[in-house]
Amino acid sequence: QVQLVESGGGLVQVGGSLRLSCAASGRTFSRYAVGWIRQAPGKEREVIAAIGWSGGSTYYTDSVKGRFTISRDNVKNMVYLQMNSLKPEDTAVYYCAAAVGTLGNYEYDYLGQGTQVTVSS
Fold first, then answer.
1. What is the pLDDT of residues 10-54, one digit of tens each?
2. Degrees, nearest 5: CA angle 57-60-65
3. Using 50, 70 and 90 to split pLDDT, how confident is the model at 68?
4. Helix (H, G, I), strand (E, B) or coil at 74
5. Which stretch of 5-9, 40-44, 93-97, 99-103 has the lowest confidence by average pLDDT?
6. Residue 24's Cα: distance from chain center in Å?
7. What is the pLDDT of residue 28?
8. 3-state SS of the chain: helix, strand, coil percent to 5?
9. DSSP 103
10. Which residues contact 60 (CB under 8 A, 6 or more apart)?
11. pLDDT score of 27
């Protein structure tokens, strides 16, 4: 069993930065790939970044490449999403998700409660 708790969301101006954190419980956390999924009002969920169990492989959707960085610390059971150059279209609820196998928009083993990110122009 893995529990995920996100933090670090908030209100930020266009061009600003935020760092989201995902704290995981469970001794087997290092076995899981972890991703950040976001859902904007009226839109489908989207995996925007993901990282493999060892941290050696990462994925970014095109809209965040070069602006967001995902990282993990398996000793501390933490996953981070550094978000720079934020845009109004980044406004969404951001969820941390973990999966042993496939991690997709609606495919995961565990999902956190989400944290709101609002980018004002």
1. 999 999 999 999 999 987 888 999 999 999 999 999 999 999 998
2. 120
3. very high
4. coil
5. 99-103
6. 12
7. 83
8. 5, 50, 40
9. -
10. 48, 49, 68, 70
11. 74
The H or E element that residue 16 is part of is none
Render the burial of 44-56: b for 16+ CB within 10 Å, e for the rest: ebbbbbbbebeee
The angle formed by the CA atoms of residues 48, 54 and 55, to the nearest 5 degrees, is: 40
Q: Is 96 exposed, middle or buried (0-12, 13-18, 19+ CB in 10 A)?
A: buried
Residue with tokens 């196998």: 101
User: Residue 85: CB partners within 8 Å, gap ≥ 6?
Assistant: 15, 17, 67
How confident is the prediction for the chain on average, in pLDDT? 95
Q: What does the pLDDT read at residue 102? A: 86
Helix (H, G, I), strand (E, B) or coil at 22: strand
Query: How far apart are the C-alpha atoms of 115 and 21, rounded to whole Å?
Result: 10
In contact, 29 and 110? CB cutoff 8 Å:
no
User: Could you identify the residue written with the tokens 């839109």?
Assistant: 43
E runs forming strands in 1-91: 3-7, 10-13, 18-25, 33-39, 46-51, 58-60, 68-73, 78-83
